[in-house]
Amino acid sequence: MSNVETVRGPVDTASLGNVLMHEHVFVIGTEMQQNYPDYPSAWDEDARVADAVTKLRECKARGIDTIVDPTVIGLGRYIPRIQAVNEQADINIIAATGIYTYNEIPFQFHYNGPGLLFDVAEPMVELFVKDIRDGIAGTAVKAAFLKCAIEVQGLTPGVERVMRAVGQAHVETGKPITVHTNPHTESGLVAQRVLAAEGVDLSKVVIGHSGDSTDLDYLCRVADAGSYLGMDRFGLDLLLPFEQRVDTVVEMARRGYAEKMVLAHDAACFIDWFVADAKEQAVPNWNFNHISDDVIPALRERGVTEEQLTTMLVDNPRRYFS
Ligand SMILES: [Zn+2]
Question: Domain 3-321: which topology?
Answer without folding.
Answer: TIM Barrel (3.20.20)
